[in-house]
Amino acid sequence: MSEYTGGCLCGAVRYKVIGEPVRVANCHCNDCRKVTGASFATNVFVKEENLVIESGVTKSYQHKSDSGNMMPKKFCPECGSQIFSYGTGSPGVVGIKVGSIDDANDIKPQITVYAARALPFSHVDKSTEIFQEMRRR
């Protein structure tokens, strides 16, 4: 997958990514659960220079993660869909919520983080490298 597109629920924000993901991660942390409203999130991390916002603007909300890094979240101001996340611990890298990608069939998670926090009914993908907490860099 060298080029793909995506956007928010209402279509106001549209983007394109050119290039392969840096990493694809399933995350079971509390923050990812709260921001997605699901039992875990799949985040596609790409180089910031490979992301092109084709239409719309985003609003931002920032919080401190478990690692102590600040985590700005970018979302559509119209429908509220969170699309992008940034972390001060990974400059130049953008996290994209897999649910915002138009055709995510070729996305394959490589790692699972915060597996120790997975809800009892959540599937932990055994085909990924599994970390009980955050992966060390």
Shape: globular
Considering DSSP H and I runs of 4 or more, what fraction of the residues is helical?
under 10%
- The CATH class label is Mainly Beta
Proportion of beta-strand residues: 35-45%
> First CA to last CA: what distance?
25 Å
Q: Rg, please? A: 14 Å
Oligomer: single chain
Number of strands: 11
Largest sheet: 8 strands, mixed
Structural class: mainly beta
Q: What are the segments in which pLDDT stays under 50 over at least 5 consecutive residues?
A: none
Mean pLDDT: 94
The overall number of domains is: 1
CATH architecture: Beta Complex
Q: Report the order of strands and helices.
A: EEEHEEEEEEEE
Helix segment tally: 1
The name of the CATH topology is Metal Binding Protein, Guanine Nucleotide Exchange Factor, Chain A
Strand neighbour order, sheet with most strands? 6-7-8-9-4-3-10-11
